[in-house]
Amino acid sequence: MYELIDHTADVGLRIHAKTLAAALAEAGRGFSSLIVENLDDVRTAETVRIELPLADRTAGSLDYLLFDWLAALLQEFETHGRVFSRFDVQELPLGIVADCAGEPIDPARHRLCHEIKAVTYHQLEFRPTDDGYAGQVILDV
Length: 141
What we know:
This protein is an alpha+beta fold and about 140 residues long. It has one domain (about 10-140): Archease, Possible Chaperone, Chain: A, domain 1, CATH 3.55.10.10. It has 2 helices and 7 strands; from the N terminus they run βαβαβββββ. About 25% of the residues are buried.
């Protein structure tokens, strides 16, 4: 016998900004704020560059860009224990380049909030709007 049960183990993140670069920077800050409750206490001691391709600016490609962006930030956290508080994102003709500034988690100074297990495709959306860009993503916690 088996039984299916409902279980909520996700958190959603919505973003709005005037430009693609600003929207991705806001997504990065939102993502980091889910890991560290006191994000303003994260020092910008180290910088990591993340480069991601973007074939075109269609809705589907933008969805995957948002997914890949947050997955790259999650990989940095899982692999090196780094969390970022400042994001300098630049649009290029064929993608983005982002300099992410932060530091490794310091339990003495950083109040951990959620353990993010994965970025999901569920309700993933990232699109241009009349006044910029907007999107949402669900994260498995």
